[in-house]
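Researcher: Next entry in the queue.
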Amino acid sequence: MTREEFNQLDETTKKIWIFEANKVAEREEGSSRFQLFKIGNLYVETKVSTNKGHKRIITTYYSYELPQEYQSNVSLVLN
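Model: Structure for this entry, 79 residues:
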């Protein structure tokens, strides 16, 4: 799936894809938890408010665009 295809999905379908995806990394920052999911060759980062429990998609990446804080987690999953 490409970034464009994912971004064109409605919110419910995006959530289904994420629910069925492999979670490859998780980190906390303040009162937020960030989770990275792998869907085919696409990575989707979500943000969960630990206070309110709301989850939202914040960005999508291809492997060559991943922020530094995720790169070691992703390489562990690939090996």
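Model: Residues 3-78 form one domain.
Researcher: Noted, moving on.
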